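Entry 14. Ran structure prediction on the chain below.
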Amino acid sequence: MNRADSISFTVHATGGLADTIVDHTDAETSPPGNGFSFAPCSAGALSDALTRAVAIYRQSDAWHQLVRTGMQQDWSWARSARQYDQLYSRMLVGSRQ
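Output, C-alpha coordinates:
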Protein backbone atom coordinates (compact mmCIF):
# COMPACT_ATOMS: atom_id res chain seq x y z
CA MET A 1 0.00 0.00 0.00
CA ASN A 2 1.38 3.39 -0.89
CA ARG A 3 1.09 6.59 1.11
CA ALA A 4 -1.92 7.90 -0.83
CA ASP A 5 -3.80 4.66 -0.18
CA SER A 6 -3.20 4.88 3.55
CA ILE A 7 -4.91 8.23 4.08
CA SER A 8 -8.20 8.11 5.94
CA PHE A 9 -10.56 10.99 6.46
CA THR A 10 -11.25 12.35 9.90
CA VAL A 11 -13.79 15.15 9.59
CA HIS A 12 -16.19 17.26 11.59
CA ALA A 13 -19.64 15.94 10.66
CA THR A 14 -21.11 18.99 8.96
CA GLY A 15 -22.54 19.85 5.55
CA GLY A 16 -21.25 17.83 2.63
CA LEU A 17 -18.69 16.08 4.80
CA ALA A 18 -21.49 14.58 6.89
CA ASP A 19 -23.04 13.26 3.66
CA THR A 20 -19.74 11.94 2.29
CA ILE A 21 -17.92 10.38 5.23
CA VAL A 22 -19.65 7.40 6.85
CA ASP A 23 -18.18 6.95 10.31
CA HIS A 24 -16.28 3.69 10.69
CA THR A 25 -17.39 2.81 14.20
CA ASP A 26 -17.03 -0.92 13.59
CA ALA A 27 -16.70 -3.40 10.75
CA GLU A 28 -20.43 -4.20 10.82
CA THR A 29 -21.60 -0.70 9.86
CA SER A 30 -24.00 -0.68 6.95
CA PRO A 31 -23.05 0.96 4.70
CA PRO A 32 -19.45 0.28 5.64
CA GLY A 33 -17.51 3.22 7.00
CA ASN A 34 -15.08 5.16 4.82
CA GLY A 35 -13.56 7.42 7.46
CA PHE A 36 -14.09 8.93 10.89
CA SER A 37 -16.38 11.79 11.80
CA PHE A 38 -16.93 13.69 14.98
CA ALA A 39 -19.46 16.06 16.50
CA PRO A 40 -19.70 18.37 18.26
CA CYS A 41 -16.83 20.49 17.01
CA SER A 42 -14.65 20.17 20.09
CA ALA A 43 -11.18 19.05 21.06
CA GLY A 44 -12.61 16.08 22.94
CA ALA A 45 -14.70 14.87 20.00
CA LEU A 46 -11.74 15.26 17.62
CA SER A 47 -9.49 13.38 20.04
CA ASP A 48 -12.03 10.54 20.22
CA ALA A 49 -12.22 10.32 16.40
CA LEU A 50 -8.43 10.28 16.09
CA THR A 51 -8.20 7.60 18.79
CA ARG A 52 -10.69 5.45 16.84
CA ALA A 53 -8.73 6.03 13.61
CA VAL A 54 -5.44 4.97 15.22
CA ALA A 55 -7.11 1.88 16.73
CA ILE A 56 -8.36 0.78 13.28
CA TYR A 57 -4.99 1.61 11.71
CA ARG A 58 -3.40 -0.88 14.12
CA GLN A 59 -5.79 -3.60 12.87
CA SER A 60 -4.33 -4.28 9.44
CA ASP A 61 -7.33 -6.12 7.95
CA ALA A 62 -9.85 -3.56 9.21
CA TRP A 63 -7.67 -0.68 7.99
CA HIS A 64 -7.28 -2.18 4.51
CA GLN A 65 -11.07 -2.68 4.32
CA LEU A 66 -11.64 0.95 5.29
CA VAL A 67 -9.18 2.10 2.61
CA ARG A 68 -10.81 -0.14 -0.02
CA THR A 69 -14.25 1.16 0.91
CA GLY A 70 -13.06 4.75 0.61
CA MET A 71 -11.43 4.12 -2.75
CA GLN A 72 -14.60 2.52 -4.14
CA GLN A 73 -16.70 5.64 -3.50
CA ASP A 74 -17.92 7.51 -6.55
CA TRP A 75 -18.42 11.21 -5.82
CA SER A 76 -17.78 12.29 -9.41
CA TRP A 77 -19.80 14.86 -11.32
CA ALA A 78 -20.74 12.11 -13.79
CA ARG A 79 -22.56 10.29 -10.98
CA SER A 80 -24.27 13.49 -9.82
CA ALA A 81 -25.24 14.38 -13.39
CA ARG A 82 -26.87 10.95 -13.87
CA GLN A 83 -28.86 11.41 -10.66
CA TYR A 84 -30.04 14.87 -11.74
CA ASP A 85 -30.95 13.53 -15.19
CA GLN A 86 -33.03 10.76 -13.59
CA LEU A 87 -34.72 13.24 -11.26
CA TYR A 88 -35.59 15.66 -14.06
CA SER A 89 -36.87 12.82 -16.23
CA ARG A 90 -39.19 11.64 -13.44
CA MET A 91 -40.42 15.22 -12.94
CA LEU A 92 -41.18 15.58 -16.67
CA VAL A 93 -43.09 12.32 -16.77
CA GLY A 94 -45.07 13.37 -13.70
CA SER A 95 -45.91 16.79 -15.14
CA ARG A 96 -47.35 15.20 -18.31
CA GLN A 97 -49.86 13.06 -16.44
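The mean pLDDT is 83. Will compare against last week's run tomorrow.
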